[in-house]
Amino acid sequence: MASTPNGSPPEADPKPVGKPPEEPKAPPQNEKNAKTEAAETSKPKLSGAELKAKAKAEKMARRAQAKVSKDAAKGEGVAPSTAAQSGPPGEAKGSKAKGKQDSAGTAGPGGAGKSAGSKGAPLVPAEPKLSVPECFSHLSMAKRIPITQADKDVHPTVLALGQQMATFTIDEGIARLKATLLAFKKVIDSYTTPPGNTLARHLTPHVLNPQIDYLTACRPMCFSMGNAIRWLKLQVSKIDPDVPELDAKKQLCSSIDVFIQERITIANLVITEKAAERIQDGDTVLVFGRTTLVEHALIHAHLVAQKKFSVIVVDDPYERKGQTLATNLTAEGIRVSYSGDFGGLRWHLHHATRVLVSAESMFNNGSMYARSGTCDLAIAAKGLDIPVLVLSETVNITERVSTDSLTYNEIDPERCTGASFRLLYDTTPDRYLSLVITELGTVQPTSVPDLLRKLEESN
Question: Where would you tag: which of 9, 24, 173, 258 has the fewest CB atoms within 10 A of its CB?
Answer without folding.
Answer: 24
